[in-house]
Amino acid sequence: MNDTDADRSVDVAVIGAGFAGLIAARELGRGGLDVLVLEARDRVGGRTWTEHRLGRPLELGANWVHWVQPHVWAEMTRYGRGIERSPAAEEAHWRGAGGAPRSGTLADFTALINDGQRRLVADVAEAMPRGTEPTVGAIGELDRLSIQDRFDRLGLDPEALAANESVWVGHVNAPLDRVGLSSAYRWVAATGGHWPLMHEASATFRVSEGMSEFTRLIAGDVRGEIRLGTTVVSVEQRGDAAIVETAGGERIRARRVVSTLPVNAVRGIRFSPELPSAWRRQNAEAVASDGTKIWIRARGHLPRFFAYATQHDPISVLKVEFHGSDEDGEPCTLLVGFGPDHSRIDPDDLAGVQSAVDAVRSGIRVTGATAHDWMADPLSRTTWMTHRPGQLTRDLAELQETAGVLHFATSDNASLWGGFIDGAIESGLRESRRILDALLPR
Ligand SMILES: Cc1cc2nc3c(=O)[nH]c(=O)nc-3n(C[C@H](O)[C@H](O)[C@H](O)COP(=O)(O)OP(=O)(O)OC[C@H]3O[C@@H](n4cnc5c(N)ncnc54)[C@H](O)[C@@H]3O)c2cc1C
């Protein structure tokens, strides 16, 4: 192949400008390679997106980071980002045995779930001794189990079981019988086996000024073009390079290509030769996450609470994030909710949202709602990735492999915080290092 086959020739084409793509592009450009980023959306950030809605900037995708996430924290330091704490709950509401509503303090709820949370992952030190190597250890045997399988075997009393299940369905964004126990192990292994720290890491500290400002700063550091509104439709490998074709018909020759598409979304591009079997298999099965995140505006300043329903409800977790005032100057509260099945709730159907909220906590008057359906979005088809039973140990190593001149950087194939922003950054660093080593050997 020569350059006349293509409209343009670069060292590396990076497909996607989420955290994985931006970090890979930054490193490749700084390393001295000619890099071009092709992003289908009209913005950078991918599944992180700060939008002004319901009267204030809201995170429609990822929200929380933590200093136990080493890759993200290095970038927080590099770009001078601060954190703000989501409000600590003054009240807790949950479902007891048979779905009966219960209320208490945060301490009451923590005391109720403590034994179940601990026992769910009691063997994590043997199952997954190193968070950075999530397929090493007894997890090889245990990966066939779902989180529900493990809860069903713990023999918890019905009050504690209902509360414990609700906590995990909020974390994994899917019904518990669909999610591998390995997803719970990974998070707890990443926090040194300390489950309360895992809870804190995954849902407590927001990035000051928002995620979109964070990714804007990283994008500003990329030495190379970031082309927005440019959908890649095919990647054809020919010898020691590839031709990347866009929906607009442009053909770009690249010595290396980095795909940052989530596993569920790779079907959006025609790859030749076809993708390695692990990609095709997982794409056909889909990963486990299937849920929704919804922002809800309610009348008045509600007490700062969190509330859990069950995995059978449209909203299984609801918590107060902000107090403010609406367009008429009336006090309002903004709540964030999570549900295990995106098809169960529509933010444009306020009556449906009201009844979903009523099922979690009574006495809330809904006046607005908004969300982005990441599962229906063809560029993501995933919220935050969790695996189905068996997928992690069967496929992770293969998902991390290079296929000819094609590299894969995505939070979905990270080793440590797979599914999180941290994992996206890890994967971007990993693949940029591999490409720099290959194209600019020292
Ligand atoms: C609702 C929600 C809440 C979350 N909460 C958290 C949280 O609190 N903390 C946390 O750490 N993580 C959270 N996550 C997960 C986190 O957002 C992701 O793991 C991370 O942002 C993934 O980054 P990525 O670069 O791997 O993928 P993406 O951000 O998905 O980037 C892939 C990019 O590829 C682009 N693309 C796709 N197809 C094409 C194509 N054909 N051509 C060109 N471009 C294409 C996409 O538009 C996208 O920009 C959440 C995610 C969601 C959706």
TrEMBL record:
InterPro entries referenced in this protein's UniProt entry, alphabetically: Amino_oxidase, FAD/NAD-bd_sf, Flavin_amine_oxidase, Flavin_MAO
Stored Gene3D superfamilies = 3.90.660.10, FAD/NAD(P)-binding domain, Guanine Nucleotide Dissociation Inhibitor, domain 1
Q: Which GO terms describe its molecular function?
A: oxidoreductase activity
Q: Name one Pfam family in it.
A: Amino_oxidase
The residues that the entry says bind FAD are 39-40, 232
Q: Does the keyword Repeat apply?
A: no
Instruction: Tell me which positions the record assigns to the signal sequence.
Output: none
SUPFAM superfamilies linked:
FAD/NAD(P)-binding domain
Keywords in alphabetical order, please. Oxidoreductase
Q: Which domain of life is it from?
A: Bacteria
Taking every annotated instance into account, which residue ranges of this chain make up the domain Amine oxidase? Answer: 19-436
Write out the similarity annotation.
Answer: Belongs to the flavin monoamine oxidase family.
Q: Which PANTHER family match?
A: AMINE OXIDASE, AMINE OXIDASE [FLAVIN-CONTAINING] B
Mind telling me what this protein is named?
Answer: FAD-dependent oxidoreductase
Protein source organism: Leucobacter weissii
Q: What is the lineage of its organism?
A: Bacteria, Bacillati, Actinomycetota, Actinomycetes, Micrococcales
